[in-house]
Specification:
Helix 4 crosses helix 8 and helix 9 packs across helix 12. The strands form four sheets. A seven-stranded mixed β-sheet has the order 1-9-8-5-4-2-3, with helices on both faces. A three-stranded antiparallel β-sheet has the order 7-6-13, with no helix packed on it. It folds into two domains: 245 residues, Aspartate Aminotransferase, domain 2 (3-Layer(aba) Sandwich), CATH 3.40.640.10; 128 residues, Aspartate Aminotransferase, domain 1. The chain contains twelve helices and 15 strands. It is an alpha/beta fold. The two termini are 36 Å apart. A hairpin with a 2-residue loop joins strand 10 and strand 11. Bound molecules: pyridoxal-5'-phosphate (PLP). Pyridoxal-5'-phosphate binds next to helix 4 and helix 5.
């Protein structure tokens, strides 16, 4: 290691918890000493507060983001024989949920600038498959930047489809709806939205947790049954359900962290703006594109670069942590070959997968650390001449 000094992690899960440790310990203690481990007022309080944070009427706490996606589909009657449109450029849980609900995922390629679902791609699929049993669209707000929701909602209305937001990376992301002439939060637009509180997410639990938001009271009631063995009261199983509840300990810890989320998110936006500025000087590197209608909260800060693997190696040698989100598109994953897609089917996603690199991004990242990341990038990219665009 040359000139590495102290390393810069990709993500810091220690500092925010050390900063809040007294409050977190007290919250944990209050659960342990009351003995209400599953359900109860602590879970309900978090649900109310998170619904409010998302500008949604209802929130149903569940055991993970994957369950959140799955329960939202199941409660809406999406299942066997139904097609759900989504992207191959996402975490595998998006399609796990669709498949486990009994439905079939159909991929649409991404927009080369935002890396999110292509609105033209959705339209094209629907126009070229007039008889297909498409029932829903699952746009993924990847890296905490929202999809272009106005046209997605308009297409859904035109074709009678439901929209489920995969907001698992997008706690607090905003979209300016020209139609409604206001900023709208992730989780407030579709039929329902799924959030993950996996520890590394913008709002993370100290373990596994997730939530679904919706404005539909009936749907919220059904999802509450599905997460709890399909019962509306003990031993009265009205629908087929699962063990998928949010436990009180995680809810209590999340309630300590939630009041800090807005400030952590603005810190992320500030750090992203700083990266954008510093990286202007680095040749051949493409920084994230944020449309005027988007306020992304940078769960991930992802750049595109040629020779990505060598660059990642270079940064690792300098003690700088990075990530790849995601290196293998879902249609090229071994376990999903049976879906029948082939390499070449989604060229924008495929090209992107070879060039993406997620740089260190977390609210406690220091400006000097960012400067060191950029310096290392400069060292490497200064020797490059080709630009990494994917158009
Ligand atoms: C994290 C994530 C999920 C799954 O959430 P879990 O809580 O890990 O089950 C789903 N979709 C996306 C896009 C994610 O990033």
């Amino acid at each position: 290691m040359t000139n590495a000094g102290k390393g810069i992690p990709f993500l810091d899960l220690v500092t925010p918890h050390v900063e809040l440790q007294d409050e977190l310990m007290n919250a944990a203690k209050s659960v342990i000493t009351t003995g209400m481990f599953v359900g109860g007022p602590i879970v309900e309080k978090f649900e109310r507060d998170f619904a409010q944070f998302c500008d949604a009427k209802y929130c149903v706490g569940v055991s993970s983001g994957t369950d959140a996606l799955r329960f939202a589909l199941m409660a809406s009657g999406i299942g066997k024989g139904d097609i759900v449109l989504t992207v191959p450029n996402t975490f595998v849980a998006t399609i796990e949920a669709i498949i486990q609900a009994g439905a079939t995922p159909q991929f649409v390629d991404i927009d080369p600038r935002t890396y999110n679902i292509s609105v033209d791609g959705i339209r094209e699929y629907l126009q070229t498959h007039p008889g297909a049993p498409v029932k829903a669209i699952m746009p993924v707000h990847l890296y905490a930047q929202m999809c272009d929701m106005d046209p997605i909602m308009a297409i859904a209305e035109e074709y009678g489809l439901l929209v489920f937001e995969d907001a698992c990376q997008a706690h607090g992301s905003q979209y300016f709806s020209a139609k409604n002439t206001r900023w709208q939060k992730a989780g407030s637009i579709g039929k329902a939205a799924a959030f993950s509180f996996y520890p590394g997410k913008n709002l993370g639990a100290c373990g596994e947790a997730g939530a679904i938001t919706t404005n539909d009271e009936q749907l919220a009631t059904t999802m509450k049954m599905i997460r709890d063995h399909g019962q509306n009261k003990k031993y009265h199983h009205l629908v087929e359900g699962y063990n998928g509840r949010l436990d009180a300990l995680q809810a209590a810890l999340l309630s300590v962290k939630l009041p800090h989320l807005a400030q952590w998110n603005s810190k992320r936006r500030e750090l992203a703006a700083n990266y954008n500025e510093l990286l202007k000087a680095v040749p051949g590197l493409v920084t994230p594109f944020e449309p005027t209608w988007s306020k992304a909260v940078y769960h991930l800060y992802v750049v595109l670069v040629e020779n990505r693997d060598e660059l990642q190696q270079h940064l690792t040698e300098q003690g700088i942590g990075t990530g790849l989100h995601y290196p293998i598109p879902l249609h090229q994953q071994k376990g999903y070959q049976y879906l029948g897609f082939r390499t070449g089917d989604f060229p924008v996603t495929e090209k992107l997968a070879g060039k993406i690199l997620s740089l260190p991004m977390f609210p406690q990242l220091q400006k000097q650390q960012q400067e060191r990341v950029v310096e290392s990038l400069h060292q490497f990219c200064g020797k490059q001449t080709v630009s990494a665009g994917i158009k």
